[in-house]
Amino acid sequence: MNILAFGPNGSGKGTQGAIIKDKYGLAHIESGAIFREHIKGGTELGKKAKEYIERGDLVPDDITIPMVLETLGKYKDQGWLLDGFPRSLAQAEALDKALQESGMKLDYVIEIVLPREVAKERIMGRRLCANDNNHPNHIAFEAIKPVEKDGKLVCRVCGGELSTRADDQDEEAINKRHDIYYDDKTGTMAAVNYFKNKGDVKVISVDGSKNIKEVSESILKELP
Ligand SMILES: [Zn+2]
Known about the structure:
Elements (H helix, E strand, L loop, with lengths): L2 E4 L6 H12 L2 E4 H10 L3 H12 L5 H14 L5 E4 L5 H14 L5 E6 L2 H9 L1 E4 L7 E2 L8 E3 L2 E3 L7 E2 L7 H11 L6 H11 L3 E6 L4 H9 L4
Parallel strand pairs: 1-3, 1-4, 2-3, 4-10
Antiparallel strand pairs: 5-6, 5-9, 7-8
The structure holds zinc ion.
Zinc ion binds next to loops.
């Protein structure tokens, strides 16, 4: 079984991908890992990609698509779940064509639907406990909300100090990623719509505003 997973940053796509991968024994392939693998392995494509990345430029599709395809091909028999690619309509069309030519069939597209403001809130609301990484705190989730102590928010489990991850508070970077994701003309939403309109692959759209368990249940009930 081969699956594409879509969802904005903050939608829990990585978590859901891991649940599905475990259930079906799929290879969970993240687009970032494909780049790293090729660059580390010093492949021709990796060398080319590295030049773009080092300049801070986007790696063009004629390098990315063959890289993705090569990695997917390795898991042809096992089946795969691809996460974080395609990001644009052009990439969706190119990937679809390349998959057909390679004889690999795309079975499902999973889309985790979440309003942009909520996705942003979910990223920015994460809090880290100074005492224990396993004490989840989040200002937007009632169940794991930090508690107030002396006018300050502290860990709901141990009362420890809370901090944020710098990446999570980088609003500009979050907005930039979401600009690409929510773009339904040429961006990632356009890629999702491409598969919806094609009609020969089943698109499973689920409400990402529910909790992790509810979201995974609504995905799994649509899968065989
Ligand atoms: Zn704590």
